[in-house]
Each structure stands twice: as structure tokens, then as C-alpha cells.
Amino acid sequence: MVESRGIEAAFDVAAGAVLAVLGPNGAGKSTLLHVIAGLLRPDAGVVRVGERVLTDTGSGRHVPTHDRRVGLLLQDALLFPHLSVLANVAFPPGSSRPEHWLAEVDAADLAGRRPRQLSGGQAQRVALARALAAEPDVLLLDEPLAGLDVAAAAAMRTVLRRVLTRDGRSAVLVTHDVLDVLTLADRVLVLEDGKIAETGSTATVLATPRSRFGARFAGVNLVAGTAGDSGVLTTPWGQTWHGVAADDVVTGRPAVALFNPAAVAVYRDKPSGSPRNTVDVVVAELDSRGPVIRIRAEAQPDGGPGLAADVTPDSAAELRLTPGDRVHFAVKAQAVMLHPSA
């Protein structure tokens, strides 16, 4: 726990597993990594790797960063410009087999170069080799692919997937990219306002998120409220949503309604007919997403992300929408799934 920064979180990562930490900017993701790495001391709490206690505020124990056997890889590779690639990998205390680790990250041919002679993707592979050469028990990854182009990021994911799934090494990955989560993470933790909003397997969180950020990250709509009978959810501001309730939904308890933006129909005038869920919204933005146009409404009354609808370019042209327009979103009940709230 880091009280002065308003962060309180407790979690564990199994040996050989990768935990992805997600959340909006300022949620405390990097702070968590810095506490694990020993760069920050929490006001209260314990950091343990296996049987080794690295931080224990109760006893005053705080193992220095260089003795923790924790590797940290940042968005900036931070290579020493005056050293060769091989010397960079061999530099950290406890480093061993630098040639081996350069080969492991497909960078053996770069050993004699200086950092200024590397591309962004090459520099990140060298930085990863340097982190692994210290034989860490835990690898911390703070958006290491954020500054790379698409091809370099894809190549780096391949390398990471290979080295993270061996040797029983745990990893914590901070990212804003759903591809990183899908290809690298076993579990996901969503941090909002310094607290854990939800955690679960990657498949579960991306398929059925229970938090605002988790839903937006996964690209689905989320409406929070209270579960009623027969697949009904009522929001604090009086909207009623009809859907298909999961078996663990309990009447009278907090729940969320989830539905895909592709399931949302958009109308200028209130529709008649089959959709049981129709809400008035104000358009906040329109965004081109390949073959579809995403229409994003203004934030929900409880501060949740605005609902989104995906329409074809032809439909968007016919609607002729601009931000500020009031429209109707309609969703059939069969397309709405109700789950317990996180």
C-alpha cells in the first residue's frame, strides 16, 4: 500500500505466470511496479518473492533494488551510449551469459554495435537481454512496446512470449495494448483510482469485464446497476435494461449489463418494434475503425464510459451525425448479458 499516492492493492502472481495490470493514466500501475522493484517504499505492506521477503514495513525490512533479483524493462531502453551492446548486457551486477541472452532475444548479431546504431525494436531486445542476464526471479514490464512500430512490436511480443514461458519466472506487465494482453498475459488485474477494480483470467476479463476500464479496454459496453428478476437491471438513474442473466446473478445485488457495440442500432427518431432496450444519448465523438464507424455517446450519469455503437459507413452517412446530436441507441435483449458486479 502506498498511502501518500492513494494506492492500495494486494495480489499475487504464480511462478511462471504473467499478470497484466491495466488501468487509466494515473491509476497507480507504474507505482506498483516501482514498489516491487524497491524503487519506492510503501507506507504499509509486504513484497515477497517465493520465500524471500523483499519489503516488510512491519519489521523495517527493505532489500535494496540491486539485490532483489527483480528485472525492470521500461518503454525507454536506457542503454549506455558509450558501451557496446554486449557490454550493456554484461553491465548489471550479477549478470551472466550475456552472449546467451543476446541470442535468446534474437540479437546476437548486434553484440558489437553501439546503442545509436540500433532501431527502437533492436534496442528493446537488448534491454530485455540485459534484464534477463541478471537471472531475475520476477520481470517487470512497464509498457516496453509502447514506442515501437507495428512490426517491431510484433517481433518483440514473439521474443517475450518465448522467454516468459520458461524457467518459472513470474512477470508483471503494464500495458494499454489489448494485443499485449492477448498474446502474453495469463491473468489480468484492472486498477482504478488506486484500487483493484477487478481481476481474473485473461479470457474472463476480456470476455466479461466487470469494471469500467475493463469494458472499454475490451471494447464492450458496460452499464452498472442492480439486478432484478428475469434478466432485468435497473440503473441508479432509473434506466431499465433487459437481458440474459448469468447463473450467478443475484436479485437485489449489484450487477453489470454487457453488450457489443456491433449489437447497437442507432436511430434519429425513437424506434418501434422489437428492441426492448432503447436509450436516449448525446453523441460525443465519431471514430473510424476500419470497416465500421464507432459512435461514442457522452459519459453515463455515474461517470462510466459512454455507450458505443458500431455502424457501417453507409449508415453513418445516412445518419449524418455530429457531436452534440441526440439519438436513440437500441439493443435487443438477447444481445445483453447480465453478470455480477466486480
Automatic annotation (TrEMBL):
GO terms for molecular function: ATP binding; ATP hydrolysis activity. Coiled coil: none annotated. Gene3D superfamilies: 2.40.50.100, P-loop containing nucleotide triphosphate hydrolases (3.40.50.300). Keywords: ATP-binding, Cell membrane, Membrane, Molybdenum, Nucleotide-binding, Translocase, Transport. InterPro entries: AAA+_ATPase, ABC_transporter-like_ATP-bd, ABC_transporter-like_CS, Mo/tungstate-bd_C_term_dom, Molybdenum_import_ModC, Mop_domain, P-loop_NTPase, Transp-assoc_OB_typ1. Residues 2-218 form the ABC transporter domain. The keyword Zinc does not apply. It comes from the Bacteria. It holds the Pfam family TOBE. Residues 272-340 form the Mop domain. One of its GO terms (biological process) is molybdate ion transport. PANTHER family: ABC TRANSPORTER I FAMILY MEMBER 10, SULFATE_THIOSULFATE IMPORT ATP-BINDING PROTEIN CYSA. This is Molybdate transport system ATP-binding protein. It comes from Mycolicibacterium rutilum.
